[in-house]
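Sequence design from tokenized structure. All designs in this work follow the same two-part layout: the structure record, then the generated sequence. An example of the structure record is given first.
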């Protein structure tokens, strides 16, 4: 009976009201919002899967759903389903089964209008609200698919279901952030941008609420062949996922594992592959949820990742690498240190590869230090990379041959995290853990890097990799600043007022001055002629 839920989980808290339309004499009009009570109602009504071939209500419901999907894929937002005789009580369930379980159709907003017949008490028509025109959707879908393909390409053929779930979990939380910028509508309601409720919010814009995190995670894991579903708690105003791993179901809450405010390259693992018991504990504080499956296996509740506050690197061959922060137990004045460890996912053997003592993240202009570790471990081409407060260290996977590849000691802050995208290693510098970071990067391929003071040429081929991650259309402007933060020169990097795809990968941007301190990149929205994002990007040899 509970199989139904996998098709109709309602977005209770985040759905805007569904209102009615139509002018026919026998149609009634009403307003409603999606409620999970409809899931319970449908669960009581249906006792078999919706995927049936006879003329039962279950079959009519599924046929109506498939017809709606076909019309939507043809960009028809006005859909007549009167022939299927679907009771009006199932309106919310039908809409939700279309919206929630098809994240790639993100041109559909999470609200719609509908009408129903007064004579038959069945749904007559839907009018869906489209976020994009077909051409706009095609352009955004290209970005959406490119990002999904990039994420799935991180999964090697040898990776099991746990590794697949972990690599996507960490990628989303490292690169995305919770939408904390709502606005108030005319009726005084707190409202977020529409994309923050759809999968494209997290996948393309890298910003969203829990619904967007959950739908994005669902979509990517389905591409990777992992059974995935949703969990929802009206009482918590929250949604997350469950995954089937080795015939057992586990909770994964990627939203709560991504902190607010968003620390640079920070990711938690408290809610990764957790049982019902752990999710409902005093520590994890989830309650009153409705799910399609019971997560009763507790064998992973004390697994190695549970208390890791940082990225977990996977080599694709069954090894995981990570750091853990520790506190000394000797002496009158305890000190904090951290270790770099490896964990064999098959044998569960753990080895300490490196111990970093007295690498404190000090409070700025103070002798006090934070009782936490802000390091991340990354794996690339047979090497490990991790950050201390002032360096990026490269070393072999057995802990040998340490080599500092970046040393940062210019007085602007400390390194508060690092991560790798393709062959670029990024790290964030700030004066405090929750401050917005200046972002630096260096290339791991042939040690190619650029220091602005050493050259008057910016090679777009390396910059392009960074720009590709922004996924923001518009005009890109690079401005060269001196050490006093005074503008020296600006250059337009795009060849026209279009997408970053039009950058020639072999082109260079020449600055007349060779005395610059740093480059700031600005993405300009060509509709409003205003900056939509600003990043300071440094290049490190």
């Amino acid at each position: 009976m509970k199989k139904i839920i996998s098709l109709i989980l309602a977005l209770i808290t985040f759905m805007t009201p569904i209102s009615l339309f139509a002018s026919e004499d026998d149609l009634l009009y009403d307003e409603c919002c999606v409620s999970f009570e409809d899931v319970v109602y449908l669960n009581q009504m249906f006792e078999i899967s919706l995927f049936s071939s006879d003329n039962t209500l279950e079959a009519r419901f599924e046929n109506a759903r498939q017809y709606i999907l076909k019309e939507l894929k043809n960009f028809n937002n006005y859909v007549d389903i009167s022939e299927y005789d679907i009771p009006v009580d199932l309106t919310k369930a039908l809409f939700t089964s279309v919206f929630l379980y098809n994240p790639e159709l993100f041109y559909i907003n999470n609200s719609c209008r509908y009408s129903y017949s007064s004579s038959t008490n069945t749904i007559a028509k839907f009018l869906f609200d489209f976020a994009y025109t077909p051409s706009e959707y095609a352009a955004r879908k290209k970005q959406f698919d490119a990002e999904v393909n990039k994420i799935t390409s991180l999964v090697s053929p040898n990776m099991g279901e746990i590794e697949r779930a972990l690599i996507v979990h960490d990628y989303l939380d490292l690169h995305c952030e919770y939408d904390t910028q709502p606005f108030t509508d005319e009726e005084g309601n707190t409202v977020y941008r529409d994309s923050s409720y759809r999968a494209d919010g997290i996948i393309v814009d890298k910003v969203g609420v829990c619904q967007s995190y959950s739908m994005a995670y669902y979509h990517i894991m389905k591409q990777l062949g992992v059974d995935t579903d949703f969990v929802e708690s009206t009482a918590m105003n929250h949604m997350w996922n469950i995954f089937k791993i080795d015939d057992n179901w586990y909770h994964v809450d990627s939203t709560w594992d991504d902190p607010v405010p968003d620390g640079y390259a920070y990711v938690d693992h408290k809610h990764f592959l957790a049982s019902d018991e752990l999710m409902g504990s005093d520590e994890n504080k989830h309650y009153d949820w409705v799910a399609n499956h019971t997560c009763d296996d507790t064998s992973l509740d004390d697994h190695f990742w549970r208390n890791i506050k940082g990225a977990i690197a996977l080599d694709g061959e069954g090894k995981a690498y990570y750091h853990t922060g520790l506190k000394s137990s000797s002496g009158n004045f305890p000190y904090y240190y951290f270790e770099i460890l490896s964990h064999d996912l098959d044998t569960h053997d753990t080895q300490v590869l490196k111990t970093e003592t007295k690498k404190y993240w000090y409070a700025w202009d103070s002798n006090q230090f934070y009782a936490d570790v802000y390091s991340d471990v990354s794996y690339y081409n047979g090497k490990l990379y991790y950050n201390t407060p002032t360096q990026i260290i490269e070393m072999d996977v057995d802990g040998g041959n340490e080599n500092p590849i970046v040393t940062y000691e210019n007085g602007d802050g400390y390194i508060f995290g690092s991560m790798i995208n393709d062959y670029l290693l990024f790290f964030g510098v700030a004066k405090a853990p929750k401050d917005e970071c200046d972002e630096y990067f260096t290339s791991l391929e042939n040690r190619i890097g650029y220091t602005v003071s050493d050259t008057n040429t910016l090679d777009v081929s390396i910059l392009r990799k960074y720009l590709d991650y922004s996924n923001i259309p518009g005009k890109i402007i690079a401005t060269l600043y001196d050490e006093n933060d005074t503008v020296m020169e600006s250059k337009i990097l795009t060849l026209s007022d279009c997408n970053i795809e039009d950058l020639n990968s072999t082109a260079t941007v020449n600055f007349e001055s060779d005395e610059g301190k740093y480059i700031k990149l600005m993405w300009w929205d060509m509709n409003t002629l205003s900056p939509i994002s600003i990043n300071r990007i440094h290049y490190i040899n």
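The mean pLDDT is 78. We note this feature because it recurs in several other targets discussed in the main text.
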